[in-house]
Amino acid sequence: MNQEPEPQPYFVRIEDYATDQLIAIEDYIVDNDAPIYAYDFVWRITQFCYELGLFPRKFTQRDDIKNDLHIVGFEGSVTIAYHVNDSARVVSVLGIFYGGQNWEAALKSMKFEAE
Fold first, then answer.
1. For residue 73, what are the β-bridge partners?
2. How many other CB atoms are found less than 10 A from the CB of residue 16?
3. 2: pLDDT confidence band, cut at 50, 70 and 90?
4. For the purposes of burial, counting CB atoms within 10 Å of the CB of 96, is it exposed (0-12), middle (13-18) or buried (19 or more)?
């Protein structure tokens, strides 16, 4: 029987800006007397980001901000923005926005590598 090979997941890279945002989320929650929750929450966000490599085009595409930009909500309080590069098979997590931050304005003001 001739079977198609399983597609390989995309490599996921969490960019520096998104990493800084994760640290800020953790610090904010720790400062509000919930350190155990903070570590667990940031771990879950990070795990979810790495899972984006399995189905990178599953979530909302926002080409009006950047070509191949996707947006996904996480647990009702986080918005994750990521770029998909099909030729390189890479998902780049560009931003992780918490608690009602204006992610759209932040992304529109960002300078991306190709610009």
1. 79
2. 7
3. low
4. buried
* pTM as predicted: 0.88
> Residue 97: how many CB atoms within 10 A of its CB?
22
Residue 35: which domain range?
Answer: 11-109
Q: In this structure, which amino acid lies at residue 58?
A: K
CATH number, domain with residue 42: 3.30.2310.20
Residues 52-106 have pLDDT tens digits of 999 999 999 999 998 999 999 999 999 999 999 999 999 999 999 998 888 988 8
Contacts of 103 (CB under 8 A, 6+ apart): 71, 79, 81, 95, 97
Number of domains in the chain: 1
Q: Which two tokens stand for residue 5?
A: 């090979």
Task: Choose among 109, 55, 59: nearest CA to 79.
Answer: 59
C-alpha to C-alpha distance for 66 and 61, rounded to whole angstroms: 9
Q: Is residue 114 part of a domain?
A: no
